[in-house]
Specification:
Helices cover about 40% and strands about 15% of the residues. The chain is built from 15 helices and 15 strands. A 7-stranded mixed beta sheet has the order 4-10-9-8-7-5-6, sandwiched between helices. A 4-stranded mixed beta sheet has the order 1-2-3-13. Helix 8 packs parallel to helix 9 and helix 14 packs across helix 15. The protein binds pyridoxal-5'-phosphate. The site of pyridoxal-5'-phosphate has 15 residues, from helix 5.
Length: about 425
């Protein structure tokens, strides 16, 4: 039998170090919110394949849909011979995404690819070149997406030159406000700052798009104040700028609404989806106002594998599951419980500097000192390693990798959720005994 360490040795021999691994274990099987490794050890999954397994690992309905599809055809290439699942999925996404206006949807394969296409469409439609992105943003690793991503190490370092015409604003990261202000007395200075930005960085009439995550994912589960996006959206509208919501991580129920922009009452011109939309299959979507989506010429958009029929069938099954099993309520309950527990941790351990959340997207930011807010990067890694030893898989987030970001499947049972939370508590208490705050 292969062990984790024998497989790791092979992995290291044959695979470069660049594609990173958080945990030194190999999966044998996975179901619901449990992953079993090749040595038979079971783990509660609070990582969900980085927010992909919202409907759980190997969901029965998803399996049925893909098994039915693979018996019929696996790939024809939508650009050569079209197929119904692509059309059906586009129709459903046009209906459920925020925005009471005619919409169209196209599919690609990854979050980064969807980001690239959204920017292409915005540039084509506006005839402008500039894009405004945010500090602490993550939009992917392909060249344009990487250029929009904020974090230098490890993502951007050594990979320059980046794509041009990208301008970066501070995000509404209230715990670490760039302007040293406090909400609500700040009166949303960080949002209105966009107007100054047009004077100091790029003229409004040169900006094709503003791309923003409704809640920072990789950036550390940062939740902006409720009026923030309305202000940004209005300024974009007033200046003919396409407002793009990157819902790759927030989408498909993670925040207890299908899309996080619904919390903010904003209807983005273009909305990007990926990750959990196809129950684990690589699939991403760009949905937007019809007049924008239809702007690029025939053949200007697409790709060989884009909108694979098996992935589209999986995504249709995921949408059915949301309707049938009320996964949005589950997300709400999970979020409530995790927030409650994390707040308790904040009371008990001074290393827990900030706790924030929207739906099931609840983050816990670890610091070495509450006053200086020095990020507790190493400590976060220790906590994650300790939790793995105790049977819980987690990942971190944040520019300084000091934020615990649970992305458990929304089908997790109460017992699994409670066990996972108590493992985090045990981990914090163990670190505390070693003199960590
Ligand atoms: C908000 C956001 N956008 C884009 C991406 C890139 O997606 P992918 O890794 O599928 O290219 C991610 C991935 O984490 C993300 O969280």
């Amino acid at each position: 039998m292969k062990t984790n360490s024998s497989l790791l040795a092979e992995r290291n021999q044959h695979i470069p170090q660049g594609p990173f691994n958080v945990h030194p274990i190999f999966a044998e099987k996975a179901k619901g919110a449990i992953i079993t490794d090749v040595e038979g050890k079971e783990y509660i999954d609070f990582a969900g394949g980085i927010g992909v397994n919202n409907v759980g690992h190997c969901n029965e309905e998803v399996l049925e849909a893909i098994q039915d599809q693979v018996q019929k055809y696996i790939h024809t290439c939508f650009h050569v011979v079209m197929y119904e699942p692509y059309v059906e999925l586009a129709k459903r996404l046009n209906k459920i995404t925020p925005g009471n206006f005619p919409k169209k949807t196209m599919f690609v394969n990854s979050g980064a690819e969807a980001v690239e296409n959204a920017i292409k469409i915005a540039r084509h439609a506006t005839g402008r070149t500039g894009t405004i992105a945010f500090e602490d943003a993550f939009h992917g690793r392909t060249l344009l997406a990487l250029s929009l991503t904020s974090k230098m190490k490890p993502y951007k370092f050594g990979f320059s030159p980046y794509a041009p015409e990208i301008y970066r604003m501070p995000y509404a990261y209230c715990y670490r406000c760039t302007f040293g202000l406090e909400y609500p007395t700040c009166e949303l200075h960080c949002a209105y700052f966009l107007r100054d930005f047009f004077q100091t960085h790029i003229s409004a009439e040169q900006v094709a798009a503003l791309i923003v995550e409704p809640v920072l994912g990789e950036g550390g589960f940062v939740v902006p104040p409720k009026e923030y996006f309305k202000v940004l959206y209005k300024i974009c509208q007033d200046n003919g700028i396409v407002f793009i919501a990157d819902e790759v991580q927030t989408g498909f129920g993670r925040t207890a609404k299908m899309f996080a922009m619904e919390h903010y009452d904003v209807e983005p011109d273009i909305l990007i989806m990926a990750k959990s939309m196809a129950g684990g299959f690589p699939l991403s979507a760009v949905t937007g106002r019809s007049e924008l989506m239809d702007h690029p010429q025939v053949g200007g958009l697409g790709g060989t594998f884009s909108g694979n029929p098996v992935a589209c069938r999986a995504a249709l099954a995921v949408l059915d599951l949301f309707e049938k099993n009320d996964l949005l309520s589950k997300a709400k309950n999970i979020g409530k419980r995790v927030l409650e527990k994390f707040k308790e941790f904040q009371e008990d351990y001074s290393t827990v500097g900030d706790v924030r959340g929207l739906g099931a997207m609840v983050g816990m930011e670890l610091v070495m000192d509450r006053k200086t807010k020095e990020p507790a990067t190493l400590l976060t890694k220790h906590l994650i390693d300790l939790c793995r030893e105790k049977g819980l898989l987690m990942i971190s987030a944040g520019t300084y990798s000091n934020i615990i970001r649970p992305l458990m499947p929304l089908v997790i049972t109460n017992e699994e959720l409670e066990r996972g939370l108590s493992i985090i508590e045990e981990g914090l208490s163990q670190l505390n005994k070693f003199g960590i705050p």
